[in-house]
């Protein structure tokens, strides 16, 4: 995606959680705790992957994309399909995407990454900043003409 920026990858944190689980310092119930809302979002808005669940190894993981941002208003916090994100990125200035992987079999879930999307990431698009500069320049010119 062209406007994706400020990407934060949580793969090291995921490896640490799995290492703690294998060492016995964390129980399966502590890491396999997907809420019913997250599981429903995975079923209806999720993107299936080819990767197996690291816990049960019987199901493939599903990625769920949650969006947050001031311009979203009531839509903030909703799960969206991957195909909806480019459309939103072209219509909104900036919003944040959180990607969560979910196993529908054993309820494993983990934040995979987060990033920003939106028109602010497009090169050369100031979203009206040029118009503001022209308006300020015009106001300054009118003041100088009024002083003459």
Describe the protein in words:
With 148 residues, this protein is of the alpha+beta class. 36% of the residues lie in helices and 26% in strands. It contains five helices and six strands; from the N terminus they run βαααβββαββα. It has helices spanning 11-23, 28-31, 36-45, 84-91, 129-147; strands at residues 5-9, 47-52, 60-68, 79-80, 95-102, 109-117. Strands 1, 2, 3, 4, 5 and 6 form a six-stranded antiparallel beta sheet that branches. The termini are far apart.
Concise description?
By secondary structure, this protein is of the alpha+beta class. The protein contains five helices and six strands; from the N terminus they run E-H-H-H-E-E-E-H-E-E-H. The chain is 36% helix and 26% strand.
Instruction: Give the strand tally.
Output: 6
Alpha plus pi helix count: 5
Radius of gyration, CA atoms, in whole angstroms: 22 Å
**N/C terminus separation:** 53 Å
- Average pLDDT: 84
Q: How much of the sequence is in beta strands? A: 25-35%
Shape annotation = elongated
């Amino acid at each position: 995606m062209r406007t994706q920026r400020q990407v934060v990858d949580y793969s090291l944190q995921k490896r640490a959680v799995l290492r703690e689980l294998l060492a016995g310092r964390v129980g399966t119930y502590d890491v396999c705790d997907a809420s019913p809302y997250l599981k429903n979002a995975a079923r209806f808005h999720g993107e299936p992957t080819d990767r197996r669940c690291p816990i049960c190894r019987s199901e493939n993981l599903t990625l769920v994309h949650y969006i947050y941002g001031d311009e979203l208003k009531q839509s903030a916090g909703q799960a969206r399909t991957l195909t909806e994100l480019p459309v939103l990125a072209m219509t909104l200035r900036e919003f944040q995407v959180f990607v969560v992987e979910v196993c529908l079999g054993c309820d494993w879930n983990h934040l995979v990454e987060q990033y920003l999307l939106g028109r602010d990431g497009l090169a050369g698009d100031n979203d009206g900043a040029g118009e503001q500069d022209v308006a300020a320049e015009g106001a300054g010119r009118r003041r100088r003409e009024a002083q003459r």
